[in-house]
Design a protein that fits this description.
- Helices cover about 50% and strands about 0% of the residues.
- Helix 2 crosses helix 3 and helix 5 crosses helix 6.
- The chain is elongated, with a radius of gyration of 20 Å.
């Protein structure tokens, strides 16, 4: 009977742990840290938790909401706003919906229900 080999992953060295924590405290994003160090974003989250680093709230900072609403009403797309604010397009859409802003249909989509 053949057994599937057990997967092993290298440990993250202490210097990398310290660097991840310090860069996160300086404003780096979890996904950027993961890509830079070649580790999974969950590993970065675990490092931050073990180091006692307080996590920043996810989503759009409240102080930027008025600017996002104004830019969206002026014609900016969800994708452009998401890129500018370094968040997902869905985050921008959710924040606009929560604020009561009606969303425009995506370009190329008609208004028929499917």
């Amino acid at each position: 009977m053949l057994r599937t080999p057990k997967l092993t992953f290298p440990r993250v060295d202490p210097a990398t742990v310290a660097e991840v924590a310090n860069k996160y405290k300086a404003g780096a994003r979890v996904t950027d840290l993961a890509a830079h160090h070649g580790i999974h974003r969950f590993t970065v989250s675990q490092i931050l938790e073990r180091q006692g680093v307080e996590r920043r709230p996810q989503g759009l900072p409240a102080e930027h909401l008025a600017d996002v609403i104004a830019a969206y009403n002026a014609g900016s797309s969800l994708a452009a706003l998401a890129k500018r604010m370094s968040v997902a397009r869905g985050t921008i859409a959710a924040e606009l919906k929560k604020a009561g802003v009606p969303l425009r249909p995506r370009k190329g989509w008609d208004n028929r229900t499917r």
